Structure formats: C-alpha cells, structure tokens
C-alpha cells in the first residue's frame, strides 16, 4: 500500500457505515427486549461505550498490525483486511464467547446460543468464571509479542534508551524472553491458591506454546512461499500470526464487556463497531507510512502491549477496570507520538543549521 493522497476521514468511511448500522441494530434490540424508549436508549448507549472501549484497548493492536502488514504482499494485505476482519468481528466477538461456554458448561453450540439469548445472567456467570485461564493464556501470548520486539539484537532505534539498549544487548542470550515469562508465571502461580494456581500455570504454558507454534508455523509457511516466489513473502504465516494476535487482544475486551451488559448480541455489536475502526486505523497507518514518519510510535504500542499483558496477569488476583487499561495504553502511545514529533523537529532544525553552515562556507569561498 502506498500513500495515494486520501484524506484521513476517507479511511473511516466503512467504519462510519458499520457504526450507523450497528447503533440502529442496538436500538432495535433494546426496543425488542424492553419495549420502552428508555430501554432502547440504554442499549444504544452501551453499544457506543463498548465501541469506545474496544478502540481504546486495541489502538496498539492497529499499530502492531500495521507493522506486520507493511511487509506483506498486497494480496495478503487485502486478505487480512477483508477475511481477517470478518474473523475478528464474527469469530472473536461471537464464536469465541460461545466456544468458552460450550467448553466450560459441556453443552452444544446451539444450546450455548440459546443460553445467551434466554439466560444471559447464567451465560455471563460462565464467562466470568473462565476469566482466569483466558487472562493467563492471553497475557502470556501478548507478553511474548512485546518482549520479542525489545529482545532483538538487530534493533537499532531506541525510545527509552537505558531500558531498550540493555534488552537489545541481552537478546544474544537465546531464549531470554521465554525464561523471563516462565519466571513471571511461577511468581503469579505462587500468589494464587489451590486449583486456581494449577489452572493459571496450564493456561499460561498453553499461551507460551501457542506463541512459539505460531512463530514456527508462520516461519515455515512464509519460507516455503518465499522459495516458490520471492514476491510471496509475508503471506499465510504472517496472516495466522495477526489473527492469533488479534484474538489475544480481544480477550480483555470480550470479558470486560460483560461488566456493562450480559447480552452477547449487544456485546458483538459494540465490539464489532470498535473492530472496524481498528481496521480503518490499520489501513491508514500502512497507507500513509505513519510508522516510518513517527519513529517511536511502534515502541509506544509494544510498551502498551507489555502493560496489557501484566494487567491481564494481575486481573487473576484483583479486578482492574478496562478503562484504566485502555487509558494507560492510549497515554503511552500518545507520549511516543509526541516524542516522535519532537525528534522530527530536532532533526529538521539540525538539518537547517547544517545547510546554513554549508551555504556560508560556499559563500566565503566564492
């Protein structure tokens, strides 16, 4: 994708359309379930709040997606931004919560759907009980994503130098990020008691193994495509990686949404609207080359990912409102953007000074 001069608002056209359709559906659901204007307005409001929650929690997701997408071929970019968003909206916001209930309650998918429609309180209870293993799994996967970015001996651009330079140098020790995550798993498992401790360890190890499996499978798939054609790199392997990454980001939003409403369909509408804005932001970041222009923006996103992973671990011990998580991530990204702008201004000032010195020297020689 290349910058084609499109205005910023034009990237969000489909997001605006989905927002309008989603809010109308939300209002209709409110009217159907309560038969009152107050009920309709309440559901309408909840859908709006859920959309904002999803955007705030997933802005770092958009940046990481853009980082991966910029190296993918146009064909696979298009596939991720079409099929990938369908999987993200319908798979993670509807199918995933249903699967949790299917596994936790030992019932069929149809029964789970009926339970969501007729007994939303029982459905929400089962979802909340499944929060611990979900937080352990998702937190571990996201922690590996964040640490792998910083533990990279080839990484040359550093935002917070005294931290990142040490991490880059330490990356020569193979498996250091895995050792760090395993140590943290042991710490948190000791803070939990009985069956909860065992559940946390098992789910966290599965999260670690999933990350490693995705890395291996993704590398093999992309390597085989590259062998067939040099232009085919950044294909199916990268696509799978992004889908699992999006799933890990979605865990927190899906579980947190049940604090606002127990209606699965309202949750799907609200989070689906938010997911469309994340998609639009991803396209804009790739198309406009924003990551190259603002050099520390990626760093802010990956720090936000690390914080989110630690928050997910901490949520196995105490409840942390999703608003805090979202604001924390957004603040970090905002600071990294501000640092990038300052860096660009400083570089331009130095360039202007250097240009003036050269012009002065040439004038003196003349």
From TrEMBL:
Record-annotated membrane-spanning stretches: 12-31, 37-59, 80-110, 130-151, 171-191, 203-222, 257-279, 300-318, 324-341
Pfam (any one): DUF475
Superkingdom per UniProt: Bacteria
InterPro entries: DUF475
Keywords per UniProt: Membrane, Transmembrane, Transmembrane helix
Alphabetical list of PANTHER family matching this protein: MEMBRANE BOUND PREDICTED REDOX MODULATOR, SLL1022 PROTEIN
Name the UniProt record assigns to this protein: DUF475 domain-containing protein
Highest classification ranks of the organism: Bacteria, Pseudomonadati, Pseudomonadota, Alphaproteobacteria, Hyphomicrobiales
